[in-house]
Amino acid sequence: MMDFMKMKNFSDGFLSYRMCALRNMAAGIAIFVANGIYFPSYGEAMSPLPFFQRIERVGVLCAVDVIDGKASSVDLDEDVLCGRAVAVLSRKLLSGPTVIGFASNDARIADPGTLLLLVHATLRPDDGKRLLSLAATLQRSGSVGSAPFFMMPPQALALSGKLDESLLESTLRRLLTPLAKALRANP
Fold it and tell me: pTM for this structure?
């Protein structure tokens, strides 16, 4: 009986010693992580995708295609689309990178700190109405990797008359929200 008691006391003491050591080690690791000393990338809260890191500006280029329609019936052109896209993304990135509209062949497109956002609108007739579809792709020069696949799902809008600016803006918000979230995750 005495041997059993000695073993029990020894095992209880050994386990409490081990638990105390593990607790101290966990507290030390937590302090290192919180200070960003041991794992600096966790302390910076950057996106794991190199594509979204170190972006200084977002340049927006736009294209509008009209399929089987008359040019006179188009109430959306590239300047209007780019202006709206820049405004929507700028509001979503108040403290993020600068959002600017680019002209074709702008020299800043090739800058390493530039993320190029290509917004493409297509207008086509659809059973007496018009269908506006919006898609966006991302490009970045340098060796930062390729853009994430299907980050911004295309959006569509059925138009029965003239293009309503509020509908265009809400469609652009839905289109550009995932990009804004990814850019806000990076300093």
Answer: 0.69
